[in-house]
Each structure stands twice: as C-alpha cells, then as structure tokens.
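Subject: Interface between my chains keeps coming out wrong

I've been trying for a while to get a sensible model of this assembly. When I model each chain on its own everything looks fine, but I need the whole thing in one frame so I can look at the contacts. Pasting all components below, labels as-is. Any help appreciated, I'm running out of ideas.
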Amino acid sequence: VKDYKVIIVHGGGSFGHYWSVKYDMHTKPLPYPSEGVSIVHESMIKLNHMVIEKFLSHELKPFSVPPSSYVFNNLPCKDRILDLVSMTRKNDLIPVTYGDVVHTSDGNFSILSGDTIMNLLSTHLKPRYSIFTTGVDGIYDKLDNGGNLIPNISVSGGGNVLSHQPAIDNERMPFDVTGGMKRKMEESLKIVKEGIPVYLVNGFHPERLLDILNNRDFVGTCMRMEQ
Amino acid sequence: VKDYKVIIVHGGGSFGHYWSVKYDMHTKPLPYPSEGVSIVHESMIKLNHMVIEKFLSHELKPFSVPPSSYVFNNLPCKDRILDLVSMTRKNDLIPVTYGDVVHTSDGNFSILSGDTIMNLLSTHLKPRYSIFTTGVDGIYDKLDNGGNLIPNISVSGGGNVLSHQPAIDNERMPFDVTGGMKRKMEESLKIVKEGIPVYLVNGFHPERLLDILNNRDFVGTCMRMEQ
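Reply #2:
Try treating it as a single job with all components included. I did that and got this:
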C-alpha cells in the first residue's frame, strides 16, 4: 500500500457548507455577499488546517493545495493540476486540496465543491481509483430501512446506470448544499466514463479503503463501465 | 481612510522563518526536505489563519489569497495579480496574502518571501503607497544606541541611495532568514524605482499608518525618487 501515490480532496462538511447556507450562497445568484465569501473561505482554510495537522500527527507529509492555485475563472488549469503529480512523485508529499469559494477575474466568486474537484482531478490525472468517502456505506437501492447496499453499478457507454437504480434523496440533507449523494453520483458517472473505477465507501471504516487497494472484498459501492 | 483599497502582505515571522531555519531550507540548495516543505507550508497557513481571524474579529472582510494562486514556477502571473484589485473594488474585501513555500512544475519548491511579494504586487499594481511594517521605527543611520532614524531617503534614477547611507546588519537577526532589513531595503528600492513611494514604519504603532494615509507628519522612513 505504501507505494500508492495519493491525492486527498475534502469538502466543506459542517464548516464551509454550514456557512454557505447561512449566507445564502447556494440559492442566490452571484454576486455573493462579501461577508459570506470571507467567512466561507476562512472556514474552509480552518478545516483544511485541521486535516493537515491530523496528517502531520501521523508523521505523514501533507501539502495543502488551495483550489485557487489550479482553477482560474472556473476553468481547470491542466499544467497546475499535473503539478500535483510531480509533488507526489518527487517528494513523497501528499497533496491535500479542498472545495472552496474561488475568485474570478471579474471580481466575482464561485463555489467549487470537493465533488467537482474529484471529477476535475480524476479526468486530468487518470488515477487508478477514485474513492469517495461519506458517512454511509455506499449507494442503496432504497432510502428507508430495508434498503440494500448496491455493491456494483455498471455504467453503459452513454453514461446510463445499468444495474440497479440507486435511491437518492437530497431533501433529507439540508446542509449538504453542494449536492450530497446526488452530486457525488453525477460526478462519479463522469469519472467512470473516463474509464476510471469509482468507489463510494464509508469513511468511518477506513479499513475498507485498504480492502479496495488490496483487491479484497469490501463493503461499499463500486461503479465502473460495463465490461 | 475608509476609501482606501488595501492589500495586506505578511511574512513568516516566528512561524515560517523558524521552521525554515530548522529544516535548513535557506542555506541548502534545492530540493528541500519534504518534511520541511510540509511543515513550513502549514505553519504559514496557520499564521495566515490567525491574521484572518483577527481581521474578522474587527468586522473587516479579509480574503486569504495564497501566493500559489498568482505565482507559477517562480514567475508572477499578471492576470491573477490584477484579480486582487477587482476583489477590493467590487466586494470591499481585503486580500491577505503571505510569504510561503510554493511548488513548481518540476516537483520542486521555492521560498517566496513576503518582501518579494511586496515588490511583485507593487510593480504590477502601482499602488499609491507601499508600506512595510516592522518591529523598529524605520531605517537608522547607525546600528547602535545613538543612531538616528532617517525620515527621508532619496533614490536617484540609477537606484542609488542619495541621502544617508542606512546601516543594516542582518547578522543580528538570525531567524529573519528571508532577508531582514537588508532584503526590505532591496525590495523597497525596486519599488521606488517604479515611482511608488515606500514607507518603513513600526507596526507596533498603527497610528503611524494613519498619519501616512492622512498626509500628516509621521515617525518612520519614507523612500522615494529624487524630485
């Protein structure tokens, strides 16, 4: 497992998401209130800082990479995204990037979610795996008690989900404003269509990540193109 | 004073500087040890976070801008630097940027000091003033007790200091690794040569900044081109 090169992406959770709801930054059109921009941005840096400190405390070598260093005017800058790879290759650093509010040249701001970043980095960098961790075990076929985890989802060339139809209800996640499971599914589909398998697993069970890396049976959902 | 548009630049102080000495990142050639890169970077984000929180506590609207969002491969990106201005014009946000260790495309890293950033932003943005705050009152004509503060320094077209020869001794500031007063003078000279007056004042007396902005007598050093 040590030989894997990893890039970490995190979202806003109770930090950025909470404040962007409070300042109405997802339902209102641009421009966002500048106080909101200021506070959402700072809350994300604070969360990133906590993540980085956790990595340092495990003697890992994280390197925080703000999205403003590789997304300009809402467009990904390929050269700068590739820099993340040279960072891992040459220095055994672990780039840690995150969803954030990013500035554009017209003086406006735009919210770039961690899920969008997952898509953006995956399609440019073509990793072996793209793994989303959430607070649930994966994608379920029913929302209520009695729903079953869908271990595999096959995607056709057109991007349609072939096997089970997953059940998604974002109305139940009022604070997960940048998209919740639905957004994760949408971004995952785009990644899968690039030929990269996507896993959705429960982040509270980190051993499941190791199961994936070691090709063992795992609890979670794997999405890939139909064979 | 409220009408002034301000961009804040801070250095590493006892955060980044301390660690970059500890990891020998100023005396050794590249590549820096990755543990040092990781820790210096994180210490600067931590310091920036503290600065931002202080601004927020005064109900100002800071917006942290990491140098990696406008310096690529050690070259300033003019468009991205101009974004800092649209940020202040359109949103009354205060961009807050800082010296840091920045990554380059070959997987290497480079230390970009706050003083260099002052020069880089000043020459691209042509501000009305460029003000360096330090822990001393300004530039002195002698290092020891009995030295006098030099209120004005005239600079000739060739960049030579005309009036007094300032006394600079960086040997006394072992931790101020990215250059101390000498570096501040060097960067100031470059800024002055662009026609922008540079002030060096004591940051422990913030009222002196107001004196400058209000065109009053002030305690500090002003450097400008000879008239």
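Reply #3:
Confirming on my end. Chain A touches chain B at residues 31, 34-35, 37-39, 41-42, 45-46, 48-49, 52-53, 56, 61-66, 68-69, 72, 79-80, 82-83, 86-87, 89-93, 103-109 (CB under 8 Å).
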